[in-house]
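Title: Comparing notes on inverse folding

I've been comparing how different people in this forum approach sequence design from structure. To keep things fair, I'm posting one structure and asking everyone to reply with a full sequence. Here's the target:
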């Protein structure tokens, strides 16, 4: 009930304000479990996609979003719960990966829709990065649930880094036909199969999104970008030091 009320208010506001377009809604099953595997361009992806579907979609979120103290923390927790986010404890020997997989399997076993970002993090530059062969493939092979490739379009342009006010524009969503990996059911311990399944899904996302594909992990790309920025700033400081000493 709370989810329905939150979706009505948040989803309705998103639809009215941004008027997102969507293609492929007919590919989402009216009932039964399915995995929605999407590219990840913006924090808002987890809100725009559920807003356009009649069914609830459960995404994984950091547990910190649900445990922050104070009024702001309680409001944040209520908001994330209301839009279908599921907290995952990242502690323990195997961390968030195992927790997310277990959570995803539980969602599928309940006959619901599970949303996941195979890249593992948001794209740092709008390109599509290599999918991680863990969560998506393991949940799909452990449960036999169909995988729907999803492409978010232009969501990163609504509120670029450093911008306080969002830009009023129409983002888009393309949902592809379900992919059946039942032929690999129970083979979620084979890393070559996991890689193959993940790559097949990423290829379909690339076709739907039109993004340039980069065969490295987004986390590695973010580290490279951060290192390059740190080097640039260090060079600027050194240059300023020489100028002041001249």
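Reply #1:
Here's my take.
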């Amino acid at each position: 009930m709370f989810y329905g009320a939150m979706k009505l208010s948040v989803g309705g506001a998103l639809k009215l304000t941004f008027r997102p377009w969507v293609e492929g809604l007919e590919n989402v099953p009216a009932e039964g479990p399915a995995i929605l595997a999407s590219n990840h361009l913006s924090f808002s992806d987890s809100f725009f996609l559920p807003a356009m579907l009649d069914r609830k979609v459960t995404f994984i979120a950091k547990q910190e979003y649900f445990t922050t103290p104070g009024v702001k923390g309680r409001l944040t927790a209520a908001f994330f719960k209301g839009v279908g986010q599921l907290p995952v404890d990242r502690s323990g020997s195997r961390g968030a990966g195992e927790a997310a997989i277990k959570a995803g399997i539980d969602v599928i076993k309940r006959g619901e829709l599970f949303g996941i970002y195979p890249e593992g993090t948001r794209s740092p530059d709008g390109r599509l990065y290599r999918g991680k062969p863990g969560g998506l493939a393991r949940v799909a092979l452990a449960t036999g649930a169909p995988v729907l490739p999803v492409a978010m379009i232009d969501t990163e342009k609504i509120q670029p880094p450093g911008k306080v006010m969002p830009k009023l524009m129409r983002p888009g969503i393309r949902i592809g036909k379900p992919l059946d990996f039942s032929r690999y059911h129970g083979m979620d311990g084979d890393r070559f199969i996991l890689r193959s399944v993940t790559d097949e899904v990423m290829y379909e996302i690339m076709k739907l999104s039109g993004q340039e594909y980069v065969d490295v992990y987004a986390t590695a790309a973010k580290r490279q970008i951060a290192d390059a920025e740190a080097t640039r700033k260090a060079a600027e400081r050194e240059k300023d030091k020489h100028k002041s000493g001249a």
